[in-house]
Design brief:
The protein is mainly alpha-helical and 214 residues long. The protein has helices at 2-23, 46-76, 80-106, 115-131, 134-158, 164-186, 194-213.
Length: 214
């Protein structure tokens, strides 16, 4: 009975965090890396602001997915140590969620209309990864962070040089993702097979392309 109640508590907490992720404004635990909102915006024309907002929307979707993935992986592991590791990574990703949301608003953009769909899909993938065992689940986390780091580096190359605020947010996110990936491998993660890595890249391409517009 105690184990059943513990699982119920976990499911309720997971559902609560899911609703907060897709339905509420996120609150960061760390200072916002971006500059004062008014600074730099005057140097961006309408096209640049729209382009930067679209890139930050894609990054925001990535953080919605990260919340779902880590929630599912934490729920699926029997190891309390790994459960806390996934939870800790998710807490840092909340900062990213809040920062990208704020920057999108500063640029006059909006978050993705499909965030509930992104969350549900990523949660299902996270559960699947957890069912493969802890070492592969950690490997999935490491590969995810590696691909996200590469994706963010690409955004740094595409953002206007004068958009210091967006660039500061993306750079801090990139540093955090690298650290998360390294931590996953230190905890015992193994490299995923090439077909799995390629499938992840294809899925990420579909998500980022769609989120750029929706």
């Amino acid at each position: 009975m105690s184990r059943q109640l513990d699982l119920v508590d976990q499911l309720i907490a997971t559902a609560d965090r899911a609703l907060r992720t897709v339905g509420m404004t996120s609150v960061a635990g760390r200072p916002y890396p971006g500059a004062v909102p008014s600074e730099g915006l005057a140097e961006l024309n309408a096209e640049q602001r729209a382009g930067a907002a679209a890139l930050m929307r894609v990054n925001h979707v990535g953080e919605v997915c990260a919340q779902a993935l880590y929630e599912a992986q934490a729920l699926g592991t029997p190891d309390p140590r790994l459960r806390e590791a996934f939870a800790a990574a998710a807490r840092e990703e909340v900062d990213h969620l809040a920062w990208t949301e704020r920057r999108i608003a500063e640029l006059g953009g909006r978050t993705s209309l499909l965030n509930p769909l992104w969350y549900c899909g990523a949660f299902a993938i996270g559960l699947l990864a957890a069912r493969m065992g802890d070492r592969l689940s950690l490997g999935f986390m490491a590969e995810t962070e590696k691909q996200v780091e590469q994706h963010l580096q690409g955004h740094l190359e595409r953002l206007p040089a004068t958009d210091a605020a967006s660039r500061a947010v993306v750079e801090q996110m990139r540093e955090d993702e690298v650290r998360h990936g390294q931590a996953a491998m230190t905890l015992g993660g193994v490299e995923l097979p090439l077909p799995a890595r390629l499938a992840m890249r294809v899925a990420a391409r579909v998500m980022t392309t769609t989120a750029h517009y929706l």
